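User: Modeling request: complex.
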Amino acid sequence: MRIIKLSAIDSTNTFLKELSSDNTLEDFTVVVANKQTNGRGRAGNSWQSQAGKNLIFSVFKRTKGLGFLNQFSISIGTALALVKTLNALSIPKVAVKWPNDILSANKKICGILIENVIRFNQLDSSIIGIGLNVNQTKFNDLQRASSLKIISGKTFDLDEVLNQFLVNLVFYAKEIEAGNLKKLKLEYESLLFRKNKPSTFKNTEGEFFTGYIKGISNNGLLIVLLEDEIIKKFALNEIKLMY
Ligand code: BTN
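Assistant: Request completed. Predicted assembly structure:
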């Protein structure tokens, strides 16, 4: 596995995307940075991370035989690899907030930004970007953010956490390649934050409504039980789960 370490970069995802335009890029090439000047989050948000305190990295993953409708499997595999890593570090109450925020004790400790390349209806490759809050202890105005150090009181070695995660990611990538998607989906659903609990959501019109998260569909939509026993599936941009 090739690991490229950078002291500063705009965004490890952007950097790796540019590298991957060269078709010979090795599978599982990893770019890890000490600091990002333009860290990107989902939905056009930015990702802030104190220099040298956290893990900010991206992994290039080539995929074979995965139809674009199954592309959410990459999110599932990544989330499961993170949960396995955090469980091994004895981080308590780890959950996945759909689609792929990782929480501990209801606080966000990790964000994932996956950028996929689709060719001829098949997933060709993914850039898996991860920001894991490890040793940072102050988040100023981000009330829902936390870190491994805040939660456990311990300081972690960033390289060790990264290496453990990469071992777990390879494990789940093999599961995906072997076609064990149903099993992975069940494992992911068992970790869903607020599953089967009354929850408040916001729709695209800014209206609030209540429902129960039941699981996800094969293509990664959120399945919610609404009033009058109505079951509805929501895409990423259609719904926001309020805490
Ligand atoms: C989110 O929760 O909105 C996703 C955040 C993803 C942040 C990581 S940090 C490493 C990689 N490079 C980026 O620019 N973003 C991802």
